[in-house]
């Protein structure tokens, strides 16, 4: 699978924070970047001074955030020449842990998150069709190929990265940040690795059709296909949720 995402997606992640001076906010933003694949495993983070400038916070705040990331095992700091802070991608959770997470969410909450995600992803697909560059299309095509070859938890990550690429192709930093926030909260539940065996080709076909519509600058079709894709994911997840609750 490819490492990292487009420059637009990464730029949105490192945009200045709305609330200045909060280590928790910096920590949350970096956790999202790592867990969603915006930052690759073993990638060196910018220096404390550079991170402080990008987020619009003090270096003390960044230092506190890095301490929290080290405690979570998401960053390691190396001393000496060639040192710095380096990303440690978390191990993919087991299917059992995903199912337990899903069990604790109410069906109405799933539907509500799905409705929100539907609005964001549909708008992003339409704008991507209207604004994307040839480089954006190339990245979407690569992300689509990842869907075809990935399995299990990697398929979940590939799905999430595809939608991040669509949001980035929409050329809207605010929309990209909204996509990131949704994925880092319960919106990520939509792409849990719970699909039954034999659906990979179907998923690949859906993403290929969305990418083709964006490449052809057909915004309405791109929105329609994306919304249908997400509605199907919501229905599938609701079925799994009901099975977990039992009779």
Automatic annotation (TrEMBL):
Keywords: DNA-binding, Transcription, Transcription regulation. Residues 20-90 form the HTH gntR-type domain. Gene3D superfamilies: GntR ligand-binding domain-like (1.20.120.530), Winged helix-like DNA-binding domain superfamily/Winged helix DNA-binding domain (1.10.10.10). The keyword DNA-binding applies. Signal peptide: none annotated. One of its GO terms (molecular function) is DNA binding. Pfam families: FCD (PF07729), GntR (PF00392). This is GntR family transcriptional regulator.
